[in-house]
Amino acid sequence: xxLAALLSLIALNAAAVSNGVYTLTxxxxxxxxxxxxxxxxxxxxxxxxxxxxxxxxxxxITHEGNNYYSIVNANSGKAMEIYDWQTxxxxxxxxxAYWGGDSQLWAITDLGNGHHxxxxxxxxxxxxxxxxxTxxxxxIAQWSYWGGDAQQWALTQVGSVGEPPLDTxxxxxxxxxxxxxxNLGTHDPSMAWENNQFWLFQTGPGIYGKVSSDGLHxxxxxxxxxxxxxxxxxxxxxxxxxxxxxxxxxxxxxxYWLYYxxxxxxxxxxxxxLASTNSIAGGNWTDHGMVISTNNANDYNAxxxxxVIDANGAPWLTFGSWNTGIKVVRLNPMTMKPIGDLHSVAAxxxxxxxxxxxxxxxxxxxxxxxxxxxxxxxxxxxxxxxxSTSVTGPxxxxxxxxxxxxxxxxxxxxxxxxxxxxxxxxxxTDVIVRHAYDAxxxxxxxxxxxxxxxxxxxxxxx
Length: 462
Hints:
The chain is mostly beta strands. It has helices at residues 2-12, 232-235, and strands at residues 20-26, 32-35, 46-49, 59-65, 68-73, 79-82, 93-96, 106-110, 116-120, 126-129, 140-143, 153-160, 181-182, 190-194, 197-202, 204-205, 208-212, 217-221, 243-252, 255-262, 270-277, 286-294, 306-309, 315-319, 326-331, 338-346, 352-360, 363-370, 382-388, 409-412, 418-427, 431-438, 444-451, 453-454, 460-461. It has 2 domains: 2-160, Trefoil (Acidic Fibroblast Growth Factor, subunit A), CATH 2.80.10; 181-461, Glycosyl hydrolase domain, family 43 (Tachylectin-2, Chain A, 5 Propeller), CATH 2.115.10. The strands form 11 sheets. A 5-stranded mixed β-sheet has the order 13-18-17-15-14, with no helix packed on it. The protein starts with a helix and ends with a strand.
């Protein structure tokens, strides 16, 4: 009888919970569900503890369709699941890397009394404070639903996620390379739109910038951090002055987020930093410190960050250079820093870096720069791409080759004037910025902007 009533409530309460970050408080004990000991490991237990403000008590709840939700820990980046596909009463609830199976999906139903039931899709059983135990560390498991206080949970929203990405693309549009003037010297540009102006940030001292009212004529801006930041040399002692590489500017969840790289040429001693502001025009950048760092012991390199928003509005970061290639990692939407496992998505024996990842019409598109940069007209950079139905890959090119094993369809190989195009970034889904070396001007690196069009099969083109 209880289960039949619950199923009726589920049908009446489609998408009863907005995507966001929540705490889960037991009605019976008044304590919060958490990953025990703030563990990052697969299989770590989920238990209860008094509120302490730690991220291990925060859960990212995402509607995955058909009235089911994923519940991902904001500290570990791993999903709440019924461990080992158990169906018995008392079977344990633990965390595991999210893969979207039924044991990781939950029906969350508003019971109308300030509390919710949380029912596993696979087992059909309820999240339950086992044996009505009120002790700190008491276990949370599953049990046949009967509606008691041990199976009711208060969901308190403590953070939000942003909107899904905006698709502004055109199918089979005309080739449109923008005619640019003004301050065009550029490496690794990234562009945003605010207050009817284009804003661009690039490699240079203190994070160099430009502004344009029409996207065609560009004027310089003061550096974001004209005196640098003291913590940079803690991670990269050999950094040259205040040189900052490959910034990425993106708008998400009410703020502009600026990721950037600190490194030296040819080294894995690197760090990605983060700053943000509520207005590029207003300045007032907030330093959020180090995001991820690497050293010579790592087999990947923490440079060339790019913020990507998935189809549900959740933030991810792609980054990487040479070595084992390009990585993707989930971000906590409250801190905008990594949680969970790194996913390898692209590698290439010619060298690979500068990833840009966007979502469009059911696919994630990964763009990378392959070859060697920064050698003027001798540069071998060129832009390649692939796509996947998952933000973590696999990314396949037009011929079905996996980018993790050297695949990637060619978008831009340059020409006799513009040599070595790369360091690309994409605004929304329809504008691509990049640098290339001008063979008519002694190989000077300059800004290129083009409309990014798409063919009828969903592949990008100029």
